[in-house]
Amino acid sequence: MAGYKEVGIGIASALASPHAPNPLSMMLRGQDLAEAARIVVAVLDECRAAAIKLEKVELDPELRSEIRLQGTSEECIVSNADLQGEVRFFRA
């Protein structure tokens, strides 16, 4: 499997495409919370590095808490209890 950085680059590249759906949804059901959080953080890092602006990122509250534990406090991250294992990236 690709590393977190490579996954982040791939998803950020998709988000940069004008043809990508908005929001871009990603299912993270096969990962534990810590691993899923590292993937989301990698996407956020790569979007920041590539100047891809995100309006918001919706994810379930447990994943939101895990991301905070990893030291990321992105203002665009919002909890949505209806999303279980799904993350939605909204481009600005």
Summarize the helices and strands and which ones pair or pack.
Elements (H helix, E strand, L loop, with lengths): L3 H13 L7 E4 L5 H17 L4 E6 L1 H9 L7 E3 L6 E6 L1
Parallel strand pairs: 2-3
Antiparallel strand pairs: 1-4, 2-4
Helix pairs in contact: 1-2, 2-3
Short summary:
The protein is of the alpha+beta class and 92 residues long. It has helices at residues 4-16, 33-49, 61-69; strands at 24-27, 54-59, 77-79, 86-91. The termini are far apart.
Description:
This protein has one domain (4-91). Helix 1 (4-16) packs across helix 2 (33-49) and helix 2 (33-49) crosses helix 3. It starts with a helix and ends with a strand. With 92 residues, it is α+β, with helices and mostly antiparallel strands. It contains 3 helices and 4 strands. It is globular. It is 42% helix and 21% strand. The chain has a 4-stranded mixed beta sheet.
Q: Which characteristics define this entry?
A:
92 residues, alpha+beta, four-stranded mixed beta sheet
Q: How many domain units?
A: 1
Mean pLDDT: 88
Radius of gyration: 12 Å
Number of helices: 3
| Low-pLDDT residue spans | none
Structural class: alpha+beta
Helical content, roughly? 40-55%
Question: What is the subunit arrangement here?
Answer: single chain
Strand order of the largest sheet: 1-4-2-3
Query: Termini separation (Å)?
Result: 30 Å
Strand/helix succession: HEHEHEE
In one word, what is the shape? globular
Largest sheet, strands/sense/barrel:
4 strands, mixed
Number of strands: 4
Percent of residues in beta strands:
15-25%
